[in-house]
Write a structure and sequence with these properties.
With 226 residues, this protein is mainly alpha-helical. 82% of the residues lie in helices and 0% in strands. The longest helix is centred in the N-terminal third of the chain and has 26 residues.
């Protein structure tokens, strides 16, 4: 501010916002991220504007998750405050998405789609969540980003469960399992086995369910995860 560096001030405000978000001070975080947005727009800094929109989305997303954890509810069964907060997150992610499309930034589009999928899932809009996660999956494959691809499969599996499409969920969870093994991520492998065990139970394939739950158990024991 002293040297009149507006872009520097915008970035500093954004960094403050992100830090306050991590500290759980969501309302103060929004004020700082909004400042980042205002200055970026005033300076015609499209990249900064996109980043600010994404960051504000993240703050509302984190706030919504924080509020819903305190109430321990299933996706879709939320208080009005949580719904409004997640709806705001969604709106900022949408604005970010249209701007990064304009800028041709595919990686940023992938992040926006993933977060839109997650917010719609929490809001109980499972069909919308699936559409967003499919877009996320396509971009992850484009970039050869195996970790993002794995997350997308997992999220697609979760959303299909709530639509009662257990067979489709099982296919996505199997892909999650394959990728977690490729990535040598045992904790995620265990999680995928757990999801598959539950899905096989819903499909009344109890033999397979037992196999997956035993695999989950073995990894949990290996990791010393009580």
């Amino acid at each position: 501010r002293t040297i009149g560096d507006r872009i520097g001030e915008a970035k500093a405000s954004g960094n403050l916002g992100n830090t306050l978000k991590i500290l759980g001070q969501f309302d103060e975080a929004v004020v700082c991220c909004q400042r980042h947005l205002d200055i970026s727009q005033e300076q015609g800094d499209k990249v900064g504007e996109a980043r600010a929109l994404y960051n504000i989305g993240n703050v509302y997303h984190a706030k919504g998750k924080h509020l819903s954890w305190n109430m321990a509810q299933d996706p879709g069964c939320l208080s009005q405050e949580v719904k409004d907060t997640l709806q705001k997150a969604s709106e900022y992610y949408e604005r970010n998405l249209s701007l990064v499309k304009e800028l041709g930034d595919r990686a940023a589009q992938g992040r926006a789609y993933g977060n839109l999928g997650n917010t719609q899932y929490l809001l109980g809009n499972f069909s919308e969540a699936i559409a967003f996660h499919k877009e996320r999956l396509a971009i992850a494959k484009e970039f050869g980003d195996k970790a993002a691809e794995r997350r997308a499969y997992s999220n697609l599996g979760n959303a299909h469960i709530f639509l009662g499409r257990f067979d489709i969920s099982a296919e996505y969870y199997k892909k999650t399992l394959q990728l977690s093994r490729q990535l040598k991520d045992q904790a995620v492998e265990a999680q995928a086995c757990y999801s598959l065990g539950n899905t096989c139970t819903l499909l009344q394939d109890y033999e397979r369910a037992i196999e997956y739950h035993l695999k989950h158990l073995v990894i949990a024991q290996e990791l010393g995860d009580r």
